[in-house]
Design goal:
Layout (H helix, E strand, L loop, with lengths): L1 E2 L3 H7 L4 H9 L3 E2 L4 H16 L8 H12 L4 H13 L9 H15 L5 H14 L3 H14 L4 H14 L2 H11 L10 H13 L4 H14 L4 H13 L3 H15 L6 H15 L2 H19 L2 H16 L7 H9 L9 H13 L3 H16 L5 H4 L1 H16 L3 H8 L13 H16 L4 H17 L4 H16 L1
Antiparallel strand pairs: 1-2
Helix pairs in contact: 3-4, 3-5, 5-6, 5-7, 6-7, 7-8, 8-9, 9-10, 10-11, 11-12, 11-13, 12-13, 13-14, 13-15, 14-15, 15-16, 15-17, 16-17, 17-18, 17-19, 17-24, 18-19, 19-20, 19-22, 20-22, 22-23, 23-24, 24-25, 25-26
The structure holds fe (ii) ion.
Fe (ii) ion binds next to helix 13 and helix 15.
Length: 480
């Protein structure tokens, strides 16, 4: 048995510093393996995940996972982190992917054959239920770990990401708050925990507090791309466009090498340009920094960013050339996934953008079929009330049936937080509703558009986009 070891700490003090091993063991984060190398690699993977950055000198996360498996094939927590990253990535599901299903089953079987700690067993159980779509239950199990092991970074980050998928905004904030006092400055990676907390704060509209905590994290480590991301959200939510542009430009050198998050931070940057109506500038960022990583990696967060960016530009009437078709090459294989409704609707945007009617229909029918069958899957349980009407609203809008799109979307608008994502990401649904209402045949719905824009203006008083839409609504109204 070895204690949980900070990889950074190992490099600093050397593996011979037994007292440091003991210090971690005293923290209670025991890893059941006889391989010191496996412990180091576990920590290397966790560090890269927690910091959103593949360290190529270590072989990246994939390289480290391969070496980890070789160092100790029977190391249960090695299987936990490997399977957990696959599942949290939301690009694969055990329902359709036999290899992933086998890996999860093998992890569970392995854990049952070993004398593990209670913490390790809870990690296995959390992934087991996550794989079966029981995301809230998985969070409960990670919380159970954190109550007794507040510095278990893997439990903290897995639960943080899963709350995000669930749209559990307060839980995302409070989960970190509950362990926050234990993450003192001497604990490795503690500044990143400030970043996680700051994001929970911004998603619960505590903008000033969020910005303060994110700046505290950046004062310790300016390369913390997630804390940069929090500040990008604060500026987005307040429509502080010039401040947002300046901040992203000034900090770009610090986060552009965070390969797992850079695309998303560029997405935030481009949103400011869409706000300003500077579409060419937004497209330049898209072409240089948002499309290439998505087309190369197919990572789901990158896919979501691509679909969302193109759809917002589409709503603004921007000509997009072949970009939808390029994106279709990445999204089409996910037509039947139905892992997260949030992902589904973003895949759908790309199908609609590329005018691929057959794939659009396939996504809708397979989602309907899965939603009809009784299942324990949390996301699928939301499909009839939220996922399907949301997807159908996009389809109706694209078919020119704007009144129908409003009828589908307006009643569920306050419930859509349950499909997950951030407030900034889900804003594309609000924009769709406004555009659909603006273009409706019914005068009542066009009046609704004006009301929705007043509401938007109250929340983001400096938004140039809202001003443009209000002018458009006034013009539509005067013509009626
Ligand atoms: Fe974001």
């Amino acid at each position: 048995m070895f204690a949980f070891i900070s990889f950074q700490r190992l490099i600093l003090v050397g593996a011979s510093d037994i007292s440091k091993f003991q210090a971690w063991q005293d923290a209670g984060l025991v890893l059941s393996t006889t391989s010191n190398e496996a412990c180091k690699l576990f920590d290397a993977v966790l560090t890269q995940y927690a910091t959103w950055t593949n360290n190529e000198s270590l072989g990246g996360i994939d390289g480290c996972l391969a070496k980890l498996k070789a160092a100790d094939p029977n190391f249960t927590m090695g299987h936990v982190i490997a399977n957990g990253l696959e599942l949290i990535g939301t690009g694969r599901t055990v329902r359709l992917d036999k290899e992933l299903d086998s890996a999860v089953r093998a992890m569970v079987a392995l854990s049952q054959s070993q004398a593990l700690t209670e913490r390790e067993r809870l990690h296995v159980s959390a992934l087991d239920v996550f794989a079966r779509g029981q995301l809230p239950k998985a969070c409960d199990l990670w919380e159970q770990i954190l109550q007794s092991h507040p510095t278990d970074l893997l439990a903290l980050k897995f639960s943080h990401d899963t709350y995000f998928y669930l749209g559990h905004q307060r839980q995302m904030r409070d989960s970190v708050a509950r362990v926050y006092p234990f993450w003192t400055r001497d604990v490795p990676l503690s500044s990143y925990v400030k970043g996680y907390y700051s994001f929970g704060l911004v998603e619960t509209n505590l903008f000033d507090h969020a910005e303060k905590v994110a700046h505290e994290a950046l004062a310790i480590n300016q390369r913390d791309a997630w804390s940069v991301h929090t500040i990008a959200h604060v500026n987005e939510m307040k429509a502080e466009v010039e401040k947002g542009l300046k901040f992203m430009k000034e900090t770009e050198k610090n986060w552009k090498s965070s390969d797992m998050l850079a695309c998303h931070n560029y997405w935030h940057w481009a949103l400011y340009y869409i706000e300003k109506g500077e579409y060419e500038a937004a497209l330049t960022i898209y072409d240089q920094h948002i499309a290439p990583p998505c087309l190369a990696s197919g990572n789901i967060l990158d896919v979501v960013d691509n679909s969302s960016m193109l759809y917002r530009l589409h709503l603004e009437g921007v000509e997009l050339g072949d970009r939808w078709n390029d994106l279709l090459g990445v999204t089409k294989k996910h037509t039947k996934d139905h892992i997260l409704l949030f992902n589904d609707v973003h895949f759908l945007m790309s199908f609609l953008g590329a005018k691929d009617h057959k794939t659009t229909e396939e996504l809708l029918t397979t989602l309907q079929e899965l939603a009809r069958a009784p299942r324990e899957d949390h996301q699928l349980s939301l499909a009839p009330s939220l996922g399907l009407p949301l997807c159908q609203a996009f389809v109706e809008f694209e078919n020119g049936n704007c009144d129908k799109a409003v009828d589908l979307l307006y009643p569920i608008r306050y419930e859509l937080v349950q499909v997950g994502g951030s407030d900034a990401q889900r804003d594309v649904f609000s924009l769709l509703l406004i555009h659909a209402a603006l273009n409706s045949k019914s005068k009542a719905k066009r009046n609704l558009a004006r009301c929705l824009l007043h509401e938007r203006d109250m929340m983001r008083p400096k938004s140039p986009m809202t001003e443009r839409l209000i002018r458009k609504a006034a013009a539509v109204h005067s013509m009626a």
